[in-house]
Amino acid sequence: FFFSSRRRHTRLQGDWSSDVCSSDLGEEGLELADDLPEPLRRELGWGSTLLLTATPAAVVLVQWRGVTLLRRGLLAQTPFQPGPICAQCLARQRAISLVNLALYPGRGEFDDLLPGLPSVLVQPLGAAGLLILGGWSARCFRRSDLTWVEGWAARLTDEWAPVLDARMPAA
After folding, report:
1. In sequence order, what are the beta bridge partners of 20?
2. Which of 58, 104, 133, 169 has a 20 to 30 A CA-CA distance from 122?
3. Does position 133 have pLDDT exceeding 80, yes or no?
4. C-alpha span between 67 and 129 (Å, rounded)
C-alpha cells in the first residue's frame, strides 16, 4: 500500500511534530491483520491513506472485537489496548474527541497508540469496533475531518461488519 508522509500537520502553531523529529515519536509503517480478505485490506489501505493525507492524523488504528485490523502512520513499539475512554465510546455509540490530551486524566490509555499524542479522536464502529486517530496537535481535527471519519466508519460498519462477525464471533 502507498504511504504518504505529506500531512497538514504544519497548519497550526504549537505543532507537536515540529518540536521533535518524527523518528523520535515512532516508526512510519503499516500493519494489517494477516487473515483479512483482500477487498477489506484494500478498503483499509484506501481509507487510512485518505485520513493520513487529508486530515491532521499522525496515526490511524482500526480494531474489531479487540483485534487490531490496521495500524498505520507513526507506530508505537507496543500494541494498543483500549481502556475506559474507548469503552465509553462504544457504550454511548458516539465519537469522543479529546482535543487536548494533556488535560485528560485518562490520557495514558493512548500511550500505546503513540506516546505524547496531543489529541485523539475515537469513533465507534457499531458495537464491536473502534476507529482511532491520533492528531499532530491539540485541537487539530476540524468538523470536516470528523465528517470524513464518521463516513468511513459507517462504510466499514455497514459493508464489513457481517464479514468480520463471521470471522471473529463475539466471545
Report:
1. none
2. 169
3. yes
4. 9
